Amino acid sequence: MVTNPSIDTHPLSAEVGQEPLLAVDNLHVEFTTRQGVVRAVNGVSYTVHAGESLAVLGESGSGKSVTAQAIMGILDMPPARIPKGEIRFRGTDMLKLSDQARSQIRGQRIAMVFQDALSALNPVFTVGWQIGEMFRVHRGMSKRDAQKKAIELMERVRIPAARQRVNDYPHQFSGGMRQRIMIAMSIALDPEVLIADEPTTALDVTVQAQIMELLAELQRESNMGLILITHDLGVVADVADKIAVMYAGRIVEGAPVHDVYKNPAHPYSKGLLDSIPRVDQKGQELYAIKGLPPNLLDMPSGCAFHPRCPYRRDNCVTDVPPLYEISGTRGSACHYYREVLDGTLG
Amino acid sequence: MGRYVLRRLLQAIPVLLGTTFLIFAIVYALPGDPLQALAGEKRVDPVFAAAMREQFHLNEPLIVRYGYYLRDIVSGDFGTTFRGLPVSTIFEGKFQVTLKLALTAVIFEGIIGIGLGLWAALRRGRWEDKAVLAVTLLMVSIPTLVSGFVLQLMLGVKLKLATGIDFFPVAGVQDGVRSYLLPGFVLAMVSIAYLTRLTRTSLMETLRADYVRTAIAKGMPRRRVLGRHALRNSLIPMVTYLGADLGTLMGGAVITETIFNLPGIGQQLFLSVYLRENPVVVGIVTVLVLIYIVANLVVDLLYAVLDPRIRYE
Ligand SMILES: Nc1ncnc2c1ncn2[C@@H]1O[C@H](COP(=O)(O)OP(=O)(O)OP(=O)(O)O)[C@@H](O)[C@H]1O
Ligand code: SF4
Ligand SMILES: [Mg+2]
Q: Where would I find the ABC transmembrane type-1 domain in this sequence (chain B) (predicted)?
């Protein structure tokens, strides 16, 4: 029953046996800083299959973005270092590839959408130029053809009057439209995996839903694997197939989305769910996980969540919980996941 | 874009009026009687003095004299000195010398400053970067007077004596472009140091920008990420500095022109202040201000070309 998370990735893969498109396996990332070594990612494992959406949840600083940047290969090394782990894309460990080979994947086969499109788009080039650049540089297209492609993509992400707006600059668009442009750019070369790092955080609530819808639709159409990093548990249920909950640079629970919603298997995921405002609890005070996120320079012993965990027992302080396999598709890094599931603890 | 240009042009007018008036007022507010200063120890004939005062409007209030002055300048007449020499004849050829000197300096500044700055930014934290920081610190700390004489002696005199070849002429302008190399460099030194540091900071800042990360995530080659995505953005402050510096350099040419005996406007300015030839002083400074304003105008326009956010304001 007890599995070592560093070897086994099955609990998080939807279809056991089928080679996943992307597999992050026991990934460790650390940053050398003046204060010491920041262990931002400590053994993260997750997989994404074609056509599958994985939502990565977790509070600020839990290592969601760093993991994504490691997959993209855009970490600054140094100060970053990857002392351990594999990132397999179609079975090949990308961490072992040459820079040359890696850059053939980056942007073309694995693409990324960033949080704040205003700062993520270059202010001095037109949006058409920036989208078209993908075709000019990676496909050797002429300026005119690339421009045509840019317009097509802008239409595909439903930017009104794309033909007229292709020569506009990022600052001339609204936030939602800018994020659409960012998405158009990322899907330009039909990537197999798309990573969206909090793609809607910078937007109005109404626009957020539209952007999520667009991402889901694009994914369905092209059968991409989607990694959706988000704080927003509300959208996860609609879009994601499975969830990976991160805490202190580790996955604490990985499971199909409905399992988690119905019955979380880790006190931290439970806390996250309880902190979503619900209609039936209107008027009641919102639940908030007490305490502060852990200091990555000085991680708590045993279970990193123990200082904040309402279910803590003595051995939690000393023993690091492995990712226990609950079922073929589900895992929890809590010694007492069974009691958490049954509701007999606490 | 058209409206932006027009607005900038219109904005330049009050600046021009304000600055020229200020200069005019300061120069004419200098203590002492200019006629008496010209005459030296001798007594000035009161009838002659009165006639001169009349001719040069010395009895009118300052603002009226400024009005006369403006009227003349607009028609290209910078006035005459008390000795009856038209100011424009005194100018002849001198602005070209100073302009050539300043342009040489700006070229040095652009090539060395931007080059060194980019190099340092890309090697940030390593010994090359630290060396650049140390050298630029040295460059700003040495007064032009010292660096001018030292370089003149080392690269001009000693090198010629050692090799027999006159690489860098040390005085005058009779050797064409070569005459300007050494003084141009001396004039540029402090600015080179500033531009180097500005370039370094600016590129380092853009390299941290989100859109640079995006370019990398798009799989763009490193050369393109740097040369297109980062450089284009960090160019904005550099161009601004370079353009504004052209004006500063022309004004700062006084010392360099004196050291290298270049018959430029700086030398003339120095002489005219000494001789209290007010029309010449005001004329020179007015032209310098004009150049400064035009340079800034060009910078503003370049700025708009480089940064679309300004253009569409
Ligand atoms: N360049 C860096 N140098 C040092 N520490 C870093 C660096 N980049 C990230 N970190 C640290 O790594 C940890 C994880 O950061 P990460 O950006 O992955 O968090 P996140 O889960 O994406 O949070 P958020 O929800 O706020 O985006 C943070 O504590 C952060 O301080
Ligand atoms: S292992 Fe212990 S401290 Fe950690 S989440 Fe489970 S009960 Fe809480
Ligand atoms: Mg993040």
A: 95-303
d(CA A291, CA B218): 39
CATH code: domain A1-52+59-99+247-346 is 3.40.50.300
Residue A245, strand partner residues: A57, A253
What b/e string do you get for A277-316 counting C-beta neighbours within 10 Å, with b at 16 or more? eeeeeeeeeeeebeeeebebeeeeebbbbbbbbebbeeeb
**Class of domain B94-263 as given by CATH:** mainly alpha
Can you give the residue ranges of every domain in chain B? 16-90+267-313, 94-263
Ligand 1 contact, A61 CB (< 6 A): yes
Give the integer Cα–Cα distance in Å for B192 and B188. Answer: 6
Strands A36-48 and A22-33, by their bridges, are antiparallel
Q: What is the DSSP string of B214-235?
A: HHHHTT--HHHIIIIIIHHHHH
List residues in chain B touching A: CB distance below 8 A. 209-211, 213-221, 224, 229, 232-233, 306-309, 312
Q: Where are the alpha helices (DSSP H) in B29-151?
A: 34-39, 46-55, 62-74, 87-91, 94-108, 115-122, 127-141, 144-151
Q: Which chain B residues contact residue A137 at CB under 8 A?
A: 219-221, 224
Residue pair A225/A194 in contact (Cβ under 8 Å)? The answer is yes
Contacts of B220 in chain A (CB under 8 A): 107, 133, 137
Three-state SS at A121 = coil
Distance from Cα A118 to the centre of ligand 1, integer Å? 20
pLDDT tens figures, A248-303:
888 999 888 888 888 888 888 888 877 766 555 555 555 667 777 777 777 788 88
B contacts of A106 (beta carbons < 8 Å): 216-219
| Domain locations in chain A as residue ranges | 1-52+59-99+247-346
Ligand 1 site-directed mutation target among A24, A29, A30, A31, most atoms within 8 Å of CB: A31
pTM: 0.77
Give the pLDDT mean for B2-14: 80
Q: What mean pLDDT comes out for the span B76-102?
A: 75
Taking the centre of ligand 3 as the mean of its atom positions, its distance from the CA of residue A65, in whole angstroms, is 4
The average confidence (pLDDT) of chain B is 80
Full strand arrangement of the beta sheet holding A53-57? A110-113, A193-197, A225-229, A53-57, A242-247, A250-256, A330-332, A324-327
